[in-house]
Each structure stands twice: as C-alpha cells, then as structure tokens.
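Q: Replication factor A C-terminal domain-containing protein, please. Structure only.
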Amino acid sequence: MEHITPIKEIDSIKDDFTIKVRIIHLWTQKSKFNAKETYSIEMILMDEEGRKIHASCVKKWFPKFKRYLKEDSSIYVKKPNVAPNTLNFKFADPERKLNFYHDTTVKECENFSGSAHGFDFVDFNTIVSNNIMESKSFDIIGHIFEYGRMDTSEEDKSKHKMLLHLQDIEDTKLKVTLWGHNAYYMTEFLANNNSLAPVVVIVQFARVKFINGRPFSSTYFDVSRLFINNDIDEITSYKNKLVSENGQQLSSSGIKMIASKQNTEHDDFLKNHMFSNIDDLFEPLEEKTVIIVGTVKGIRQNIRWYYLACSNCYKSAKEKESSTDKVDGSHEVAEIVTYECSNPNCKNIKISVIPRFKIPLRVQDNTGTLTLTLFDQEAKKLFKYTAKELYDKNKKLGISLDLYPMELKVVVDKKLAIKIDITSYNVDNKSNIYGIARLTENANIIDELEKKNLNSQHDNSDSFIIGSSDIASQETKVVKDSFSHTGENLTPCARDNSTATSPTKLFSTPTELKRNLATCIDLDEMENLSTSKTPRLSPPDEQPIPLLVPKKEK
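A: Structure for Replication factor A C-terminal domain-containing protein:
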C-alpha cells in the first residue's frame, strides 16, 4: 500500500503524492461563453482527518475521470496538480486547490473510515452576534418555524429565492435565504411532506453578509448543499434533543407562512399604481408612486455609472487621504487612501469599499425623455456582470472609469416598465431627479400597460386637429375630433378633395399642448381659426405642425 498524504501536508513543491478522500459535494460549472455548455466538474474533497480541499476537473478530462466522480463516493487520487486558491469566498482549504489533469490517476476506495459529511456546525448565536467571518463558509442546523413563498421575479432561475426562518435548540432564530435549486428543493419538500416530525434543515457551506450590522445568511450558488429531514446521524440526534427539550413531539403543522411584504410583479405594475407619461414627471405636484413605459435611448456620459459603497451598509463612501511614516526608516511620509462611510449610523470605523451600479439612463416615451438612475438591485436584472467586475476589468485595462463599459450597452433600446417614487423632495424642490424603484422587461405587462394608456387617451381626448392640406395655397383646415368624453357623436367638418401633405400630430397632455401652442400659434388669433381661411401660419418655407386646440367655451 503506497503512502497516503493527508490534505494538511499537501505541498506545491511535490507533485507525486496520493490522497485518500471522500467527495462530500459535487457540482458542475457552466462555461462563461456558453451557458448551455459544462466547463468543469467542481468537488469538495475530505480526507479521513476531516480536512477539506476544493478540486476541479475540466471538460477535456471528463472521459478519463467522470465515471469515478460521484457525490458521496470515496476515491484515491494520485498526482493531482496543486494550484493556489484565489477565490474570495473560501469553502475549503483557504490556500490551495487541486486540479485533475493528464498525469492524474483516480481509483475507487472501499475502506474510507472518516466522517460521511464532515459537518462543521456554527451555532446561531455566533452568527447573530457578528462573530463569524464573511469570507469563509460554515454549516448550520436548525428547524423551520416560518418560511416564505418562492420569489420568481427574476428571469434567471438561479436567482429565484426563498426565505426560511430557522430556530435552534437554544431557541435562537436565524433568517436564511435559499437560492436557485436549493429553493426549489425546499419548496417541493414542503408541498409534499406533511409528517408529524419537525422539519430539520442542514445548510452545508453557507455564507453570511453583514448589512448595517445585521447578519444575512444564505446558500452560495451551487457550492451549498441542503439536507432536509435526511436519515443521517446529525439530524436524528437534533430531533432527539429537540423532543427532550420540549418534552413532546413537534408538529410540522406549526410552521407558518411568512406574510409577503413584496407585491407581485403583476400587481405592482398593473394594479397598485397609476400609469403616467414622462412629461407628467417634469414638474411633480404631489407625492405618489407611478408606472411608466419607456425605451432606453442611451447612458449619460457626463455622470459616473457607479459609486463606491461601504461594504457594510452599501451607502456611499468618501475617499479621504491620510499620512503615516514609512516603515523603511527614511522618516519620509507615505500617503494612504482610506474611506469614510457617509452613513452616520454605520458602526464600522474602518471600512472597505465595493463598486455598485448607479447608471444614469436616458429613457423616452412618446411625450418626452428623462434621466432615471438605475441602482444595483434592479441593474442585476439587466446585466450579466456586477459593477465590481466591470470596474476591476476597466481599471486593469487602463480604460477611463468615467466612460461607461461597453457591457452596459445591452440596455440600450430595451423597452421597460418602470416604477418611480415621487418623494417630498421632488415636490418641494420641483426636482425631476428620480431613481428606478423597480423595473421589468415582461412583455405581457408592458403590452397591458400600453393598452391601458391608449384607452385612457381615447376616453379623455376632446380636441380640434389643425392641419394643412395645401401648403402652396397656405390654407389650413380646422377639423373637430370625432372623440369626445361627453359621448356625443361628433362628425368631422367637410374637407376639400385635396390630399393632405402634412402629418397629423396629436398632443395628448396639457403641458405639451400649451408648449406647442405658445411656439406655433398666436393665441390672440385663435378666435379667428374657425372663420378665417388664412390664419397665421408658420413661415412659408416650413410645413405647419398640426396641433390639438381645446374647444372654446361658449
């Protein structure tokens, strides 16, 4: 029997060594260039001492190794290649990882004596008291006392999510978000299992993020593994402790559905708020939430597309310079760039910063164009890359960070339904600076909104159309619109047989009508429009613009 090297003794200096491990988790990584193509098989391996290491096998070596690579199987691996672990989030050995390549050999192992899963549990109190690192994974065990509905608002299924409220033996509570396939696994389990036993959950390789000092635990892409009431020692032991602590068997009927605070996309856009046109937002008169439909025409170049955010609370951070003595003994001063969070409630004195989206979009409908700011949360629906990834890429290539990355160009010409909050600031300061509260590309919702807007225009129109049928003779016809909110069956006045050479343009809002009347028609002569055959026109070399003129009260 050849010598077995423990994971803790793996050294990049040596390449001829053998490890005896169990594959405690396995998943596939998709290609960055083709989402339908598998790029690699990723694994977390554990030796008999319980130490873990990340390993990868790229597609070209699948024929050689794939038949041995199965979750929960044990294998011998000889001559794997050692590489540095460059991932920011560590879920195994923080320094090294292994790659399978042409010199590597794998064979089955039938006498692995280590743990079956290698759980490394962290109690809930450690998490809620902020005594855990964000950069390292951990395992948790608890039972469900509340759960939320699946959120499927994103098109990408990996971004569908479900919220669990877990409780441990000590009655400490923790919120955990399940993402993607783990959320679907939980939803299916809860729908099909009505047993009397409590629903005990293990999340292996979980992660935590602290926002405003509060912990938010979640699964991490395909790395996390979920166990729900499995017949394994750890869950059986937890159930026995739970029963002894409570003195009786708990029932899953006690699990409650969390009341949803988030409106469905359909209700938010079609039921809960008024539809508006862009020109109605130029001079806000009252606080309210409105829905618009518009097309993105471009991104403003004179405003940055990102901001540097405090990694703790995501509020903007300000750069400040400080100095310190150099450590080389030269007595010279070194300039150091540090950051200060703009949020007075942020508890972190020393902070790091992360780029987040703040994109000034120029959005247009048939009444006007407006700049709307797209922030990180909604930007995730439109882009494949994070702001940090684009920031780092441009910085590495030496591209000015003031120019928006070409990857953002995919948003141009997209038609979106957009939710906008008109705040007291907008009303008090007559400000038309707005952020995008929510957006959707859902074609059915956009079609429904446009139909409602069209019907509203028809119901409210009560106007005259002024047009030119003969530029040479400088004659203008006045035609009364056939639509009226009073329900009268109005008939357009007779036209001559000449063919109209100018288009008919309708101005459906008071603001647009007033603006165009002021620039194109002498309001003092409107009294003569219905009687004079030669009303004032635009200059002879310009084609007159047809306008809507309100009916004059008798």
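A: Brief note, in case it's useful. The two ends are 108 Å apart (CA to CA).
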